Amino acid sequence: MDYSTYFTNYSTEEISADLLGRPLTYNDGKRTLGGYIVEAEAYLGKKDRAAHSYGGHRSPANEGLYGRGGTIYIYAQRQYFFFDVATQAKDEPQGVLIRAIEPAWGVEQMISNRSGKNGILLTNGPAKMMQAFGIHDKNWDLHFLSDSPFAIDLNDQHQKRPQEIAKSARIGVNQSELEWANKPLRFFVAGNPYVSRMKKNDYRANNGWQ
What angle (nearest 5°) sits at the alpha carbon of residue 115, between those of residues 32 and 147? Predict the structure, then answer.
């Protein structure tokens, strides 16, 4: 299945859940870095008060969300960068924020990129993941996935299978918007230690994979 089909023909919630266990990689020009997606959040566009495109807001900063499904949307908060992929058809600005991966490829280089941070702290959050990739800019914003050094492996044979896909409210959503702050649009591998804010008591054997 190609990116256009995958990121357009399913709901954003379905895509967010299905991405769990799929390899996300980044080629830094010398090597491949990456891991298995363990946490993703759905943002539902113009109606979603937590989305950057709420109410049809459109600017050069969020133009990536308005691209066809499979377009990269990288945004910054303070000095941190976050990796999203647009979903749905062009000009329907929904997307998925990849929040965390379980490291699998280029781990030593990712540790170096994170100034020696290791273990679950390496990639258990969206900004940490981008730092581990060595990304400190928005250079790949607006690029289509297949025209970038990023790749999401859509081959089902390469996907790890979660024992359980858990759902919760998204992290960091303004609580003044209670309806959208509480919607269960965050999808994660239950018991995986690399999921942000996962408590040790909730860790599962085999990191929550089947």
Answer: 30
What is the rounded CA–CA span in Å between residue 201 and residue 137? Answer: 36
DSSP states of 189-205: ETT-TTSTT--GGG--G
133: left (phi over 0), alpha (psi -120 to 50) or beta: alpha
Give the per-residue pLDDT at 31: 97
Domain-located, residue 84: yes
Does residue 116 contact residue 16 with C-beta atoms inside 8 Å?
Answer: no
**Where in the sequence is the domain holding 49, given as residue range(s)?**
3-158+167-202
Region 44-63: mean pLDDT is 97
Look at the chain and report how many structural domains it folds into: 1
Which helix H or strand E contains 104, and what residues bound it? Answer: strand 94-105
Q: Are 88 and 22 in contact (CB under 8 A)?
A: no
Per-residue model confidence (pLDDT) at position 151: 98
In contact, 152 and 133? CB cutoff 8 Å: no
pLDDT tens by residue, 153-183? 999 999 999 999 999 999 999 887 889 999 9
* SS3 state of residue 55: helix
Q: How many C-beta neighbours within 10 Å does residue 189 have? A: 28
Question: Cα–Cα distance between 196 and 102 in angstroms, integer?
Answer: 11
Q: Is there a domain that residue 116 lies in?
A: yes
CATH of the domain at 17: 3.10.300.10
Q: How far apart are CA 53 and CA 88, in angstroms?
A: 13
Distance of CA 10 to the CA centre of its chain: 17
